[in-house]
């Protein structure tokens, strides 16, 4: 009796598991399109001199006396290129704020807007802390538009070229992004 009872409850459990499995959608049917991962390398050109692409729009009364320019707010419309000194394929539009009193560190909020190439018309939203003195910095990809809808991921930045006298800079951005291309 006990054996039959055990085996029937075992069969019941098997049936219940089968029903549960059938009711749980597989990842393939849950998403109407597939998530893919894309790696893009672009160069970001912060031009302080000449036809400047970065302007200071606000600062604190104490910013000039701060070694880290704490409190300064910059607006950017920086060129993005696929190779350091080549054709512009998009622009980095947004702001960065000097937000650390001890080290040179900025909080950045930017949209990488592509205007040429395979991502023309799409954009990637980036937010994070950029501690400039570090060799490799990392920030978050927090969203996107076009082929980058529902984007998530991260960027790694490395200084490629800097002019200490003018402040002009070229930074290499490696973007690792997961998104639903459809
Ligand atoms: C300055 O740069 C913008 C785009 O970054 C460009 O449209 C404009 O023609 C440039 N102006 C001059 C004088 O080079
Ligand atoms: C900080 O220095 C800049 C450049 O010398 C000057 O234009 C600006 O007025 C100064 N800001 C303050 C708050 O004193
Ligand atoms: C790219 O531009 C930077 C800054 O203008 C310059 O120093 C460098 O030599 C250039 N590199 C190449 C490969 O043209
Ligand atoms: C990029 O897209 C815009 C708007 O769809 C279009 O007008 C433009 O010709 C495209 N540029 C390139 C280089 O494909």
UniProtKB/TrEMBL annotation:
Listed Gene3D superfamilies: Allene oxide cyclase-like
Record-level GO cellular component terms: apoplast
One Gene Ontology biological process: phenylpropanoid biosynthetic process
Localization per record: Secreted, Extracellular space, Apoplast
Record key words, sorted: Apoplast, Secreted, Signal
Signal peptide: 1-30
InterPro entries (UniProt xref): Allene_oxi_cyc_Dirigent, Dirigent
Transmembrane segments: none
Highest taxon listed in the record's lineage: Eukaryota
Quaternary organization: Homodimer.
Function: Dirigent proteins impart stereoselectivity on the phenoxy radical-coupling reaction, yielding optically active lignans from two molecules of coniferyl alcohol in the biosynthesis of lignans, flavonolignans, and alkaloids and thus plays a central role in plant secondary metabolism.
Protein's name in the database: Dirigent protein
Source organism: Digitaria exilis
């Amino acid at each position: 009796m006990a054996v039959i009872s055990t085996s029937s409850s075992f069969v019941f459990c098997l049936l219940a598991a089968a029903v549960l499995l059938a009711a749980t959608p597989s990842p393939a049917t849950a998403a109407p399109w597939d998530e893919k991962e894309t790696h893009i390398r672009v160069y970001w050109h912060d031009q302080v001199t000449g036809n400047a692409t970065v302007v200071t729009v606000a600062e604190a009364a104490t910013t000039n006396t701060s070694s880290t320019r704490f409190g300064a707010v910059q607006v950017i419309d920086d060129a993005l290129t696929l190779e350091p000194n080549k054709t512009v394929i998009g622009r980095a539009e947004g702001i960065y704020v000097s937000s650390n009193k001890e080290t040179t560190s900025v909080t950045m909020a930017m949209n990488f807007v592509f205007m040429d190439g395979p991502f023309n018309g799409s954009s990637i939203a980036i937010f994070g802390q950029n501690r400039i003195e570090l060799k490799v910095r990392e920030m978050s990809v927090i969203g996107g538009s076009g082929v980058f809808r529902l984007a998530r991921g991260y960027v790694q930045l490395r200084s490629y070229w800097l002019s200490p006298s003018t402040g002009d800079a070229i930074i290499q951005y490696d973007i690792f992004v997961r998104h639903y291309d459809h």
